[in-house]
Design a protein that fits this description.
Blueprint (H helix, E strand, L loop, with lengths): L1 H32 L8 H9 L2 E2 L5 E2 L2 H4 L7 E2 L6 E2 L14 H16 L5 H13 L3
The structure holds heme C.
Length: 135
């Protein structure tokens, strides 16, 4: 049990530094083309996460179609019905601990919903929104 708590703590620290770095790098990228950029925005992120679009498979979906609206709860894949573990790092300490994984899924999932990859600003906004739900 103690070991589990310790492991959780370590994962939590990893998550905080990984996601901080990730967001900082995205911010630098946005500022290259928009020097006046102030920072990522929870409201814009919420719109990205909850609004419906004609997705890749010709069905209207949003990020919530698979992840649900309560991110501390498991979701369900809209297409396959497979359970998806919660997106919230508090409910699921494995979340946001590996940039490669975050990037891979954001690329795939933006394609699912928007039929294109997300911009640096969109990715930053939506991740900021997801993390804001933990506060
Ligand atoms: C068709 C279903 C589906 C949709 C729609 C979807 N996702 Fe996902 N998402 C998944 C699956 C499956 C995974 C990977 C399995 C897992 O990690 O549990 C995943 C993983 C992720 C991760 C990985 C986080 C991590 O570090 O583990 C993020 C972030 C994410 N999704 C964000 C989004 C966003 C933002 C949208 C909307 C643009 C979205 N998802 C739409 C199914 C979906």
């Amino acid at each position: 049990m103690k070991l589990l708590i310790l492991l959780g703590l370590i994962l939590n620290l990893t998550y905080a530094s990984v996601v901080d770095d990730y967001l900082n790098n995205l911010k630098i990228e946005v500022q290259k083309s928009n020097p006046n950029f102030k920072g990522f925005d929870i409201k814009r992120g919420e719109e990205i996460f909850t609004s419906k679009h004609m997705g890749k498979k010709g069905k209207e979906i949003s990020c919530t179609s698979c992840h649900g609206i309560d991110l501390t709860k498991s979701g369900k894949n809209f297409f396959t019905g497979k359970v998806i573990e919660p997106l919230s790092p508090i409910a699921n300490p494995k979340r946001f601990t590996e940039v490669k994984n975050i990037e891979k899924w954001l690329r795939r999932n933006f394609n699912d919903v928007y039929n294109r990859v997300g911009t640096a600003q969109e990715k930053g906004d939506v991740v900021t929104y997801i993390l804001s739900k933990d506060k």
